[in-house]
Design goal:
Elements (H helix, E strand, L loop, with lengths): L7 H10 L20 E3 L14 E3 L2 H7 L4 E3 L6 E3 L8 H4 E3 L6 E3 L2 H9 L5 H12 L13
Antiparallel strand pairs: 1-2, 3-4, 5-6
């Protein structure tokens, strides 16, 4: 099936709204090795539309691990939980950082299920966050420390 077309203006809106970061793991696009795709929060295969409120900037890792999922298992309750939706949820209500800002911690069932499903703490991302923290480029300035 061909990829659905997203207008250039809409792509720019999504990138600007995300401040050039993955809306899931907060990875910076300007330090990534691959271009970030515009992803459908609710996948087209599940009835999602090509509209601003259903689009998010996502790193390749989060996008690939999310695939067409909208829910995942919370590792604590073992319940099927809706994934984090950057258009409906506030990041800091569902996620926090460890002491060195290298690992994302899910602090709600949605946060925990999303961290696991999207593999937000895979080695490459953790190492990049450590390096960027060391040079003062991580965490994003608008995120307060939470544990």
């Amino acid at each position: 099936m061909p990829r659905p077309y997203i207008a250039v203006e809409l792509k720019h809106l999504v990138i600007e709204r995300a401040q050039g970061r993955c809306e899931y793991c907060q990875c910076r696009a300007d330090y990534a090795t691959e271009t970030f795709p515009i992803e459908h929060v609710v996948p087209i295969s599940r009835g999602g539309k090509i509209e601003s409120e259903n689009l998010a900037l996502s790193c390749s890792s989060c996008n690939g691990h999310k695939y067409n999922a909208v829910e995942a298992i919370d590792p604590i309750s073992d319940s099927l939980i809706p994934l984090y939706n950057p258009r409906q949820h506030e990041w800091t209500k569902h996620f926090g950082w460890n002491e060195g800002y290298s690992r994302i911690i899910g602090i709600t069932p949605t946060g925990r299920a999303t961290v696991v499903r999207l593999q937000m703490n895979h080695l490459g991302s953790v190492n990049l966050r450590k390096a960027l923290y060391f040079v003062g480029k991580h965490p994003p300035k608008n995120f307060e420390k939470s544990k």
